[in-house]
Design goal:
The protein has 317 residues and is mainly alpha-helical. It is 76% helix and 3% strand. A hairpin with a 2-residue loop joins strand 1 and strand 2. The longest helix is centred in the first third of the chain and has 57 residues.
Length: 317
């Protein structure tokens, strides 16, 4: 009996030691994770966090580029000026118009391309590689390339359209009030479509084949398979890549600045262009920071509404 008690005590002691060892391993894992994440967190803080806080602080003062050390509190005059400026609302309209059209077209063509690349077509591995090429090209190079394609006299687009008798004379694509924004939309679509299609393709490949087989046994058509199996299983992927596309295009600057500079007649002046011109062309850093602050708030609200829309959709399902 005494030996049994000693054995029992020994087992309890071993359990406590193992338990302590487990806690120690947990602590080690936590320190390991912190050591990995801390450099990235510090980098984000110094490159994104501090500049955002600095910009928000500057938005409440009169700050000129030629006298950056002279901060004068202006009693929210910057915000009053921005929200009563028609140019700000025009830039907001252009930004939303551009974002909505580009993201919708990206999703539609990206999903179509992903479905094609996920099917049993010949050379699909080669095609998956070729599709990524526009994404590899830097944004600046993309802008210069499409500026050449849209060139009125010797651009390839005008040549093809005239050869097909679609247009009678060359279009001034980037110099036209009506055509400049569509030209940038086409350029952005060409540049960003590979990312959307690749992410959707990855989502398609993650759908279990058994779901399709079960639906086919129940007599589901191809359209029903797409609507009741593919789309619901892709919901998480669609939510993520669409939100990334919204944010990416909301802050799009290089294509607009290089291809049109916001012109002609402000027809392509987005919030990014307006903020830059105000701060570095008009030399008013305070007002430029104010536009950037409101722009940030609008982007956060759009992202929140987008997430709420998906959340409500999930609750209904």
């Amino acid at each position: 009996m005494k030996n049994d008690v000693e054995v029992s005590k020994g087992d309890g002691l071993a359990y406590k030691l193992n338990n302590r060892k487990g806690l120690t391993e947990k602590t080690k894992d936590k320190f390991f994770l912190i050591s990995i994440l801390l450099p990235a967190a510090l980098l984000l803080c110094f490159t994104i966090g501090i500049p955002i806080v600095k910009s928000l602080y500057m938005s409440f003062f009169d700050v000129k580029l030629l006298s950056m050390n002279d901060y004068t509190w202006n009693q929210f005059a910057n915000y009053k000026k921005v929200i009563t400026d028609p140019e700000f609302f025009h830039s907001t309209y252009i930004t939303f118009k551009y974002v909505i059209i580009v993201v919708l077209l990206q999703f539609a063509f990206g999903l179509l391309l992903a479905l094609i690349l996920n099917s049993n077509i010949r050379f699909r591995r080669f095609l998956r590689t070729v599709v990524l090429l526009p994404w590899i090209v830097p944004t600046i190079v993309t802008a210069l390339l499409w500026m050449w394609l849209f060139q009125p006299q010797y651009g390839l687009i005008n040549y093809v359209l005239q050869s097909l008798n679609i247009i009678n004379e060359p279009n001034q694509w980037l110099q036209s009030i009506d055509l400049a924004l569509p030209a940038i939309i086409v350029t952005a679509l060409w540049r960003q479509l590979p990312f959307m299609s690749t992410m959707l393709l990855a989502g398609l490949q993650g759908i279990p084949e058994q779901l399709y087989e079960a639906a086919k046994i129940d007599g589901a058509s191809k359209l029903q398979l797409f609507w009741h199996v593919t789309l619901p299983m892709l919901k998480g992927t669609i939510k993520t890549v669409s939100l990334i596309a919204i944010i990416e295009n909301f802050k799009m600057f290089p294509l607009f600045w290089i291809m049109t500079g916001g012109g002609p007649l402000d027809s392509t002046t987005t919030l990014a262009i307006l903020s830059y011109e105000t701060a570095f062309t008009d030399l008013d850093l305070g007002l430029g920071a104010t536009i950037g602050a409101i722009w940030l708030v609008i982007m956060l609200v759009v992202a929140w509404l987008y997430n709420m829309m998906f959340k409500l959709g999930s609750n209904k399902v």
